[in-house]
Amino acid sequence: MKVLFIFAHPDKRSFNYSLLDAAVSHLKSNGHEVQVSDLYRMNWKGIVTEDDFLNHEKGTRLKVVESSTKAYQENQLTQDVVLEQEKLKWADMVIFQFPLWWFTMPAILKGWFDRVFTSGYAYNVGTHTDTRYGDRYGEGIMAGKKAFCIITAGGREEHFSERGINGDINDLIFPINHGMLFYPGFTVLPPVLIFRVDSRRETVYQQAERDVLQRMDDIETIKPINYRKQNFGDYAIPELRLKDGVENSTQTHFDIHIKQD
């Protein structure tokens, strides 16, 4: 399997970096091919500007969706973005690893999504019909590829539970799993969630490494999150609203967008 890590942490001495090294070594020892986009080491440009679109007339109004579509179609994206898109085409599995900062991913990683997932490449709403609304949410360029997140957090697991002060971790990362990974077509695997990384306890790291390496061993067989696909009958078109009664009686909030076995 071809595995691509998109990694975001500024310090090579970090808990995260140690996990990355362990995971990459383990995958390679098991015969997988691995590439790593280490965003901080790459000095990744984390904001969208007119300079991202080489065919944009400088100083004129920037409409990002239109400009990114045109730049992609005319091969006028910057080389750093093109290289990341090529890595995504190469990969069978993409792993996004990052610390949870202010209840989401670091800005540099969000900037990677903003710049790499251009219109025309990662998404294309396309022509609407009575039964379809473009190739997205389960269809699209990433269809057939898998992805998941490895996320570290300083707080305790109970702080991120349904009744915890921070809210349910699965609610917090729904916009990432569903809105950023499933949207362009990835089959999304459950995340690896690691808590209490700020405790400085060696036992926390040891357990985290065991969990990550176990996921690397299970990477080809683990059951994905069964998100409902947009164009397969569960959503009314063109309203894009889940049809009444599709979910079961125990499902609420974001959970209604996951099919239960």
From TrEMBL:
Cellular component aspect of the GO annotation: cytosol
Alphabetized InterPro entries for the sequence: Flavodoxin_fold, Flavoprotein-like_sf, NAD(P)H_dehydrogenase_qn
Keywords: Oxidoreductase
Start and end residues of each Flavodoxin-like fold domain: 1-214
Gene Ontology molecular functions: NAD(P)H dehydrogenase (quinone) activity
Pfam families: Flavodoxin_2
Family: Belongs to the NAD(P)H dehydrogenase (quinone) family.
Family annotation (PANTHER family): NAD P H OXIDOREDUCTASE-RELATED, NAD(P)H DEHYDROGENASE [QUINONE] 1 ISOFORM 1
Name of the featured protein: Flavodoxin-like fold domain-containing protein
